[in-house]
Amino acid sequence: MHDKTHLVDQITGHRRMRRNRKADWTRRLVQENHLTVNDLIWPIFLVPGKGIIDPIPAMPGVNRMSVDKAVEAVKQAADLGIPAIATFPNIEMEKRDQTGSAILDANNLLNEATAAFKKHVPNIGVITDVALDPFTSHGHDGILRGDIIVNDETVDQVVRAAVMQADAGSDIIAPSEMMDGRIGAIRRGLDAAGHQDVGIMSYATKFSSGYYGPYREAISTSGLLKGDKNSYYINPANGTEALRDATLDVEEGADMLMVKPGLPYIDICWRMKEAFGLPVFAYQVSGEYSQIKAAGMNGWIDEQRVMMETLLCFKRAGCDGILTYFAIEVAKKLAKG
């Protein structure tokens, strides 16, 4: 028999990587990571009133919704198999003040929505945030005293808010304000109130990022913000500091960890999963969403392909799920097979 060994076989030691890529069936057979509807958390924006669906210009395809319309949308999400939603309110300006006191109103927009979702769509998880920025007149995530976001007073307030949100039916508290000690304080507060079953998804590594712009438009804080958030968000240059932050949250009792933003910090996703073994989630934030949408609308990229590719990348980086404004679109695409 004529020896058909090629120079390439000699160079590679008869190992050819392309053998497993040669056909669709082999590529499917050896695919390491898969994106499913079970990986999706849908963030939604709420506004007061009834019958309101208000498009957000900076986020094409995303709307602010009144509670009644949000209930209809969440029913659709549940029917598509999406496991959970995350809610963010855009309350009236006259209800915003220096301390974000409206977050302590048991019947505020956030808690009203939670109760409605648990009544009408009981089979979907509800994740709520206790950061004060949707409720403050200055756009910061905590209580502002002079030029300082005060840590301990803010923690006291978010603990009270967390208990109220749990009372309203929230399944998971996701504190994003990045105050020191908040995870342990919230855990103790929830347990003391009898909410041992309510989980905590810590925004363990929330970076001081430029990717939040469209979100701030969505909750009407962009024009309110005084100064920046560098004294409590993490410097984008600091990976080790981010891991130290996450370590403290794990020690304080976090059930799940989140990285925000997502794709620019995909290395942090991997490091956190490797370090702790807890469920890790990435938040594909508004700026990431808007970039993909804008480039797709201009024909510069294949929007659908990039949408799916970025979400799959989070899975490859060790994420157990992704908060994404694409959730409904992706769920429909996955349902088609």
From TrEMBL:
Q: Which InterPro entries match?
A: ALAD (IPR001731), ALAD_AS (IPR030656), Aldolase_TIM (IPR013785)
EC numbers listed for it are 4.2.1.24
Q: Which GO terms describe its biological process?
A: protoporphyrinogen IX biosynthetic process
List the GO cellular component terms.
Answer: cytosol
* Superkingdom: Bacteria
Task: Identify the catalytic residues.
Answer: 206, 260
Q: Which Pfam families match?
A: ALAD
Q: Which Gene3D superfamilies match?
A: Aldolase class I
Which reactions is this enzyme annotated as catalysing?
2 5-aminolevulinate = porphobilinogen + 2 H2O + H(+)
User: Can you name one GO molecular function term for this protein?
Assistant: porphobilinogen synthase activity
Pathway assigned to this chain's UniProt record: Porphyrin-containing compound metabolism; protoporphyrin-IX biosynthesis; coproporphyrinogen-III from 5-aminolevulinate: step 1/4
Keywords for the protein's UniProt record, in alphabetical order: Heme biosynthesis, Lyase, Porphyrin biosynthesis
Indicate yes or no for the key word Lyase. Answer: yes
Tell me how this protein assembles: Homooctamer.
Looking up NCBIfam families in the UniProt record yields: PRK09283.1
Give the similarity note.
Answer: Belongs to the ALAD family.
Protein known as: Delta-aminolevulinic acid dehydratase
What organism is this sequence from?
A: Allorhizobium terrae
- Source species taxonomy: Bacteria, Pseudomonadati, Pseudomonadota, Alphaproteobacteria, Hyphomicrobiales
Gene name, per UniProt, is hemB
